[in-house]
Amino acid sequence: MGYILFFCRRKLYKSHAVKDTVRVDMVSLWYVLSLLTFLSLEASGTNPGVQMRITQKGLEYEREISIVPLQEKLKTIYIPDMSGKAEVLVMDVSYTVSDMRIQEVDLLSSSVGLVPGTGVSLSINNAYIGLNGNWKVEYLFVDDDGWFSLYIGGLSVSATIGVNNDGQGRPSVYAAHCTASIGRVEITLHGGLSWLYQLFDSYINSAVLNALQPQICNLVIEAINSLNPHLRTLNVLAQVDKYAEIDYSMVGSPFVSYSGIDLGLKGEFYNIGWHQEPPFSPTPFSLPAEDSKMMYIALSAFTMNSAGFVYNKAGVLYLYITDDMIPSGSPYRLDTKTFGVFIPEIAKQYPGLKMKLLVRAAKEPNISFEPNNMTMQASGTVTAYAIQPNATLSPLFILNMNASVSALIYVSGLKVAGNVTLNKINMTLGTSYVGPIQVELLNNVLRTVLNFAVIPKVNALLKQGYPLPAIGQMNLRNTQLQILKDYVLIGTDVQFLGLELPDVL
């Protein structure tokens, strides 16, 4: 339940629903989501509490949403005016080509893939660029001018985008490789004489290509680098409430294989301003070979248990229970009359008084995962008081309690939330201020009190959920959750809403 206590909080969770469709600018799923992925443990030596993976399907989604904006970006390539002299049909011709503007770009065929050990490959094939411009020539005693359209076909781009750790626990990207090549050029002249085609074929075509070709890769590299400021917005240390914050930082370098882009996040809760490590560590675990979703997030029990450690250290794992918290239809009341049936000395010493219970954790709860099952073992104390007419609390007894709780976990938008059910409780006597107590006689009473007063409070907190790490308005869609051995696996598709990010492949 790594990510669940990744979202587990004080008494447990906090929720937020993210829905709706999404419009993505050009922020690469494989960059933005490269943020979220599992890490090469050999490189870091540290086991992550959370592992995430971007699959080939995620890369394909990014390719689809990126092609149209990239086409628009390529239209901004600047081609400077050109002039010179050339010998055409034994004539010395002075020429000027000006006001060249790209009018059309069509990236007909594109694909993305994984480059093990590096990042992502992008290939664009059989693309074309169409541009218009003006021409002017002077030869002998004649001036001539007109305009032309130039069609560049067979354009190919090959780029490799590396994914790295910026040293601050955030991902970064860089252009590891880029090449662009152009196949054929066709020109149509408007005005002038047919012999001018030789001038264009021999001189101007190559000049245009020489000016155009390097700018394609420059544009790609610039776009890749411009993503890094946005990757740095990843909330690697996110405040949950006044007690806790979650560390989402990467614990090593991203690991890229044919299965996906993996990275590991620390996935650990801390007290705000006080980062004390718990007396337990994350154990290694591996993601299953699933690829039907764009992204997989594995949340280990360590993350959840670190939340329990933090809130227990903060001293907030307790709850006072009074009779007004018990429904009117309950067969038991929180008063000395009810408890006097099982412990006669209470009715004798404190007749007709209301009672108050203090339920307090003795240590942090322990969460474990087995296939299709999540359980939490909690130990604590139940201290009973009689409320005197002057509001003074008179202690009656202290019980030691061990409880087993099962949980339902679900994803709500960009958060993980939950709901718990009390399975069983076992109580032993700690201290009695009212003589002998047969603790087993109190089981039904206290179980009813816990179900009516404690469990609803816990579930109200769990319903609020805890956020997953994200950049911008990232939405999860078609989400599925599985409880496996030692972790919870979330498989999801991803969309982005209203991102004001630069056009990036």
Automatic annotation (TrEMBL):
Residues 289-492 form the Lipid-binding serum glycoprotein C-terminal domain. Pfam families: LBP_BPI_CETP, LBP_BPI_CETP_C. One of its GO terms (molecular function) is lipid binding. The keyword Disulfide bond applies. Keywords: Antibiotic, Antimicrobial, Disulfide bond, Glycoprotein, Immunity, Innate immunity, Secreted, Signal. Residues 53-274 form the Lipid-binding serum glycoprotein N-terminal domain. Its main location: secreted. The keyword Transmembrane helix does not apply. One of its GO terms (biological process) is innate immune response. One of its GO terms (cellular component) is extracellular space. It comes from the Eukaryota. It is found in: Secreted. Disulfide bonds join C178-C217. The cytotoxic action of BPI is limited to many species of Gram-negative bacteria; this specificity may be explained by a strong affinity of the very basic N-terminal half for the negatively charged lipopolysaccharides that are unique to the Gram-negative bacterial outer envelope. The N-terminal region may be exposed to the interior of the granule, whereas the C-terminal portion may be embedded in the membrane. During phagocytosis and degranulation, proteases may be released and activated and cleave BPI at the junction of the N- and C-terminal portions of the molecule, providing controlled release of the N-terminal antibacterial fragment when bacteria are ingested. Belongs to the BPI/LBP/Plunc superfamily. BPI/LBP family. Monomer. Homodimer; disulfide-linked. This is Bactericidal permeability-increasing protein. It comes from Hemibagrus wyckioides. The lineage of its organism: Eukaryota, Metazoa, Chordata, Craniata, Vertebrata.
